Every structure is written in structure tokens, then in C-alpha cells.
Amino acid sequence: MGKTIAEKILSEKSGKDAYAGDIVIAKVDRIALQDGTAPLAIRQVEKLGLEVKAAKITHFFVDHAAPSPRKELSNDQKLIKEFAEKVGAEFNKPGEGIIHQLMVERYVNPGDLIVGADSHTCTYGALGAFSTGMGSTDIAIAMALGKNWFRVPESFRIVVEGEFQKGVFAKDLILWIIGELGVDGATYKALEFHGETIDKLDIDSRLTMANMAIECGAKAGLFKSDEVTRKFLIERGRGERFREIKPDEDAEYEKEMYFDVSDLTPIVAKPHQVDNTARIEEVEGTKVDQVFVGTCTNGRLSDLEVVARILKGRTVHKDVRLLVAPASREVYMKALEKGYIQEIIKAGGVVLPPGCGPCVGIHLGILADGEVCLSTQNRNFKGRMGNPNAEIYLSSPATAAASAIEGKIADPRKYL
After folding, report:
1. pTM (2 decimals)?
2. Sheet containing 220-223: which strands, arranged edge to edge?
3. Which one-letter DSSP state was computed for residue 328?
4. How far apart are CA 239 and CA 355, in angstroms?
5. CB neighbour class for 164 (10 Å; exposed up to 12, middle 13-18, buried from 19)
6. What is the pLDDT of residues 318-346, one digit of tens each?
7. Cis omega before residue 272 (within 30°)?
8. Do residues 98 and 378 lie in contact, with contact meaning Cβ atoms separated by under 8 Å?
9. Alpha-carbon distance 288 to 317, whole Å?
């Protein structure tokens, strides 16, 4: 019997002929932690008296509160830095960027098994890696042993065909898929994305989709590695790490779903659930107070490019705060070189340091009571951006930019 991508990678890393439902002990290639979850993992390591044997593959990032807005968080970040230095792990200070963007820029390769103390670790599946988030205690064990236990997930085969309209993007597609599946429709499953539309997606678009696999409960979001993957790795100086990762033709799937994007319009997720989706026509005209472009979902160079393109020669609405956060220092520098940052600032936007920004509601854009934010992030739960008395809508960067201009949720297709 053939294997899915998840079954292949977990079989290889465990040395066991594994299929969905099997429990395996598997060696991990990388371990990633951010400042929101790392302190608990560190304290668990110290409480259990563990020796960190996997320090060389362990990476710490300060991105959720970068720079820190409170002394308590500053103390936690100091704890992380001192621990990383003590055990010999990598430490990334505030301003370097978001954990998931930096991992993809520097380390992730097809066939890797990666665990992270962050639910959006599933992002790396865009490169053909099996990557998943775990609790801080499980990550402490991974740091100590360089391995962990996994239940091999069942897989859903998601097939996408058709051509996107101008102004419709991968973010709209993944919101549509989540709307169809529901927030718990793929709990502990691996989503495998296939079809001619998927094959044509660039890496940034694949990262956006893999990033949001967790929003329907999935354990991982997986793409086969192909020429798009190879070119990305060559550009990153890791061309020799390319390998073909794909499912067997006779692999067995728990479920298969088919989507045609030919008639897909921009999609928006309404408060307070990611699967509460609507086509742009249903929500167009909803007043917004803040627009946020960034995060591990849509803070990449191509995202800033489309925002700058729409804003060029236009002005942000007088009643709207437009906040833009590049996903990494590299993205920020390239956006400066290409003039994207200048266009955003000239239009009236505010550019934040590389990092998560207001997404997790710690700083840099907390909403007031009754305010509405349209964001390119991955979650819109009640209180997600720091105020349970505010509302969050989710969209693509193009929809966000159009809405910042009009002061209300707007269809980006007229600007493209």
C-alpha cells in the first residue's frame, strides 16, 4: 500500500514502516521556540533536570513582543537569551523577524521533521517538510532528546483547479477551504494540497496556505516538493538540500475534496471564527478603524508588494490606522530597496518593526472598545488583538489595502 507525504516522512524519521494511526518515536531535524512559549519550555527543562542534547538544532526567536512593552516580558526574554547561551542554542533578538519566516529563510528543507512551540509551525509544510506545533513540555523533551513521539495522522487530499481572477490570492483560497471544512473539520489530520492551481503557486502563497492548516484543526499542511521548491532553495543557498517529496500514487486518504477557483472572489472571515467566511460581496462596506498587514501568514515581500501597488498614488482613509509589519529583517530591507515601504508611508501607513506586531494583542496596535480591524493574520478569535470588545475580520493583503483606502471593507479587484 502506498503512502501519503506524512506517512513517508514519519516512516523515514522513525525507521518504522508507519501508516496513519501508528505511534512512532521519530528523530527531529529542527526545534523552534518563540518568546511566548519558550519560557515555559525552559522552566520545564530545568524542573525536570534535563540535559539539552539537541541544542545545535534548537532555535529561539523573540517575535511576539518585539521590542518588549513590559518588564515581565523583558525578564522572560532575558531568561531565553541566557538559557540559549548556556546550552549553545541559537538566539534571535527582537527585530530579526517572525519565527516561521526566519525558519523558512534559513533552515527548512523538503523531508524535514520539525517541531515548534507554536501552533503555526505547520507553515513549513509549504516546502515539503512535516512540521507541527507542540506544547512546551513536549518541546522540552525534544530539546533534551532530539526526538519525540508522534501519532501518524490520517490525510485529506485537497485538489484545487482553475485560474485565479486578478485580485484573488492564496489567502482567499485557504479561507474558503477552512470555511468549507470548519474550524474542527480536520482535527489531527494532514492536509495535502494538489492540483494544477497548487502547482502554479509560488512559495509565499504555499506558506500562507500551510500556515493556516491549523485553523481547521489540522496537524500539518503539506505540499509536494517540485521545481518551485528547488528554485527557492537555490535562491536561499540550500539547493543541495532539495529532494523530491511526494505521495505514492496509491496512497490512501481519509477524505478527498475538490475546489475550482475560477469563480472565486475575495474571501473575508467575519468575527469571531476563522470558518465564519463570506464572499467580499456580502461584507463590502463594513466600516473599519484599523487595517493590519503582516504576521507569519502575510508579512512577506510579495504581500508588501501588492499593498504598495494598490496604495501607490492614493491615501489611507482619514479614519483608518494602517499598520504594516514586515515578517523579517530581510523582507524589510528588500521592501525598502524596491520602494514598497516608501509607498506605504507616503500613503499614510505606519511601518512596524519585523515581528508579530498586534496579531497576539500584546502591543503595537491594541484595539479600542467597539473598533473593527481588518487583518491579514490567521486568527480572529474574540480578544485575539488585545480587546474582547473589538471585532476582527481576516482577508488577503490586497483586500486589506483596498479597505484602508476606502475606510470600509472593499473589493481589491477594482484596484488591480
Report:
1. 0.96
2. 220-223, 190-194, 155-161, 255-260
3. B
4. 27
5. middle
6. 999 999 999 999 999 999 999 999 999 99
7. yes
8. no
9. 10
